[in-house]
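for the record, two folds in this file. i put them one after another cuz i was lazy. first one right below, seq on top, structure tokens after. the second one comes after a little note so u can tell where it starts
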Amino acid sequence: MGGMANRETPTKTTPIYLSGASRPELESRSGFGFMRTPQIKNRPLAGPWAADTGLFSAKGERAFNLDSYLAWLDSQDASTCLFATAPDKICDPVETLRRSAPVFAAIRERGYKPAFVAQDGLEHIADQIPWDDFDVLFIGGSTEWKLGPAAAALVREAKSRGKLVHMGRVNSERRYQYAARIGCDSVDGTFLAFGPEKNLPRLTGWVERARIQGELAA
């Protein structure tokens, strides 16, 4: 990944928006789905979804147990799941790699596409990324890093290898449009956690405008 240019690559697709809030307004709605963790006890809603460990928070760190996570995956419907993240450590690529590498195969054996969560500084150990072991690159980490040139370069590398790309914490149209421009296939956010009646039309507008721009860029 040496000599990586700070540029964005237009995409012809519109990222699926996975809501971290289980809102029935999104159930079976085209272009939308849900991000779920073992800690979410709500009834699963119909539509595409992705599984996350919940390790993005201190509470999630305390609650996480690998055996319980894998057992939870066993109890879910893998056929409608876009991917399942391997364990990570926020803003720590070395620890994330240590945690993730042994788990990719276990996730795949359960019928899920394993996702590797990229963290700040991953570009410095890019030669250690086990690209063949996972299917989805999940852009995590700090806001500054995920919107910077290193993360964009990792997205380009992932796409060149035929991987899907996801971006976490997308809660504004500006960030959604950015994720679309650099080639993300899906994003997640909690935009609908508050004021869904007001925010649902705004959210659907983001997706529709990105779709139109993608068609114009094609």
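(here's the note) second protein begins now
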Amino acid sequence: MHRTLLRLGQVLSLVALLATFGGHWVVLQSFAWVTMLVENAETAPLSVAVEKTFDGQHPCAICKSIASAKGKEAGQQKPAPVSKLTLFWERSQSAESPLREVSRIVPGGNEMETRSAAPIVPPPKSVTV
């Protein structure tokens, strides 16, 4: 039972990943090409059927509907404008180093106790016995 659920989760994750990156269009287009190749091979030699299938001049009904749906989907998707992408924290000019002044809240009161001593650099090495 556990392996079955694990396999189901893997399959569903793969399907979701394919759908996210447009893999469903690849699957549908492949199905359309195979269908066209079989239909063309019934009336012509295989070399002519392959050429007619992939030349783009003789699309089938499935190919036309896929192209139409892809066009509609592309028209609906508008990327959100990105004003500024912050990858790292940028320190402002007026900010002071947090190592210079360490504050802590005193229990039972609203006042803060301030300590100006910086931590020991480098930290003490741990002793292993």
